[in-house]
Amino acid sequence: MRLVKILINITVPLFLLMLFASLLTTKPYLLVSEGLYDSHDDIYYDYDFVVDRIIGYLNYQYDNLEFGSDEFDQYILLSDDAISHMEDVKVLYTSLRILAVISFIVGVSVSIYLYKKDKKEFYFTFRSLPLMVAYLIAFVGAYILIDFNRAFTIFHNILFTTDDWLLDPNDILIILLPNNFWIVSGFIILGLFSISMAIIYYLNSKIIQKVL
């Protein structure tokens, strides 16, 4: 029973976190971000076209990142380091999506098992879940606010084995996706994640508690 509770505490938050993080790799989200950051004033290329190619690459719509400033430009826009880093990002993103699917399957399965086996344990497990995650959210959010650059560096050092992500400040990717983009995106993800945890807590209290 303890293993079941541990699996729920890991897989449910992980799936939800990956679900909301996937918003960053959608074209609508990038299009909404157009012009919101100072660095976007330096964009000289077709924003919609470049976003479509980058997001399309991450989602297997395109095989490579060899594209120009628009559909007619034959010059390769991204630097070699940027292309190399995006190749690593694609591998990581694919792995995380697979992990999210596995987490969903395991999380739902063990939750159903626990509900049928012991409704009281199910209730207490999901009642404590949002509270435990809240501490993590508060810690991550505070760390981002206090020292975003260090948090960003630690994140990349953990997830990537090369230094290709250390791009020139004038690189296309840096201009397109500046630090403020990641700060805003991080808090959007944490916000949606917090809301989902609050919904779980509410539904657990209003629905599950009544059947005990």
Report on this structure.
The protein has 212 residues and is mainly alpha-helical. The two termini are 18 Å apart. The mean pLDDT is 87. The longest helix has 38 residues, at 80-117. Helix 1 packs across helix 5, helix 1 (2-21) packs across helix 8 (179-208) and helix 5 packs across helix 6. The protein contains eight helices and no strands. The protein is 71% helix and 0% strand. The chain has one domain. The protein has helices spanning 2-21, 27-32, 47-58, 80-117, 119-146, 148-159, 172-176, 179-208.
Provide a brief overview of the structure.
This protein has 212 residues and is mainly α. It has helices at 2-21, 27-32, 47-58, 80-117, 119-146, 148-159, 172-176, 179-208. The longest helix is centred in the middle third of the chain and has 38 residues, at 80-117.
